[in-house]
Specification:
mainly alpha; 2 strands
Length: 358
């Protein structure tokens, strides 16, 4: 057979281009799923539901004064829930936060009264003590590698005992003496425990501080290098250290932020009531942690926001006061909070799985 008679090679026609295949890593999610993936979305919907429920069940909530009370109750929880949430995003949590609030107030009250000095001196010393407690927690954690549960549980017990024993030793009672007639009290009260008028309704200044701190914490998390460090150390401490994140600095300063929050709320309590009971604060740390968890923060760290705990704290304040306004037995409050906590965690888990499902 001649070369001319050989069959021509078959011409292969490429298949018509079809839709490009993508895997779960490259497929773009819908806007709805991206919104649902935000840690604060679930708690926002829950807060709206609780708010509407009590608007119907307790009509007195609709009054401006009642809502101001709800916001005040929420703010005293929310101011502490914010640094606790940042700490949880950083992979740790603090069981001493509740008694640290009382320790700060006791320090300022007793120092001012017993030494007969301007109350601002007590306020400054209390700030130093609160920051030192936070730094101590962070330092022990990083030096020993112990879980934050054990470190802060020890601090909780120490502070609880010291609060009661020192107060009895110094004052001969379980509460501090009244400091309302001391120098600087009026100025300090104006800063930490005053009210302002909004449309004829008296609103506590803590509500203003709560919103300002929430905006500041959100900016820090989303717009600063320190915010990136918080997420990094919460996700993986070793990986964060490998890429140059100052893990020790970040962890210690997060505990100090909790100390700052404890100082601020402690000063509010002192200058609102002029005196402080040494046995208070026990159990409040669980409220702060629960508000952060309901707000979308994971106990495992590396995930959360500052806005979520704002709604979490609002839910607590709404339930706390809503039960009273509805005329129900307040003994059910903690049970209601437990159900709300479990429900929020399950909803957040479902929403995250649905949002990340391929």
């Amino acid at each position: 057979m001649s070369m001319a008679q050989q069959a021509e090679p078959a011409v292969t026609t490429p298949p018509a281009p079809g839709p490009e295949e993508t895997d779960g890593r490259t497929r773009e999610r819908s806007v709805a799923l991206r919104v649902l993936a935000r840690p604060e979305v679930g708690v926002f919907l829950g807060a709206v539901a609780v708010f509407v429920f009590f608007l119907i069940a307790a009509p007195s909530v609709r009054d401006g004064g009642s809502m101001a009370t709800v916001l005040y109750q929420s703010s005293t929880i929310g101011i502490m829930a914010l640094p606790v949430a940042l700490l949880m995003i950083g992979g740790e949590f603090d069981l001493s936060a509740g008694v640290a609030v009382v320790a700060s107030a006791l320090t300022a009250g007793m120092l001012s009264y017993q030494l007969t000095v301007n109350v601002w001196m007590g306020v400054i010393v209390a700030l130093v003590v609160s920051l030192a407690v936070g730094a101590f927690n962070g330092w022990v954690l990083m030096k020993t590698g112990l879980p934050s549960f054990l470190v802060t549980l020890a601090t909780f017990l120490i502070l609880q005992g010291v609060n009661l024993a020192v107060t009895k030793l110094v004052t001969g009672n379980v509460a501090t003496d009244d400091i309302s007639d001391m120098d600087g009290f009026d100025q300090a009260k104006a800063v930490f425990a005053s009210s302002f008028d909004v449309g004829g309704v008296e609103v506590k200044i803590t509500v203003f501080y709560w919103l300002v701190f929430a905006a500041l914490a959100t900016w820090v998390l989303l717009r600063t290098k320190y915010g990136n460090w918080i997420f990094a150390v919460g996700g993986s401490k070793e990986s964060a250290r490998a890429v140059g994140v100052p893990v020790t600095f970040t962890k210690i300063t997060l505990f100090m932020l909790v100390g700052f929050g404890a100082w601020f709320v402690g000063m509010h309590q002192l200058f609102s009531f002029n005196t402080v009971q040494s046995g208070e604060g026990v159990g409040q740390e669980l409220i702060y942690i629960a508000a952060a968890v309901i707000g979308g923060c994971l106990l495992t760290g590396g995930y959360g926001s500052a806005i979520g705990p704002v709604f979490g704290a609002f839910m607590f304040g709404m339930v706390n006061q809503g039960i009273v306004f509805a005329g129900w037995n307040p003994d059910w409050f903690k049970a209601f909070l437990g159900v709300m906590l479990l429900g929020a965690v399950l909803i957040n888990l479902y929403v995250r799985r649905a949002a990340t499902r391929r």
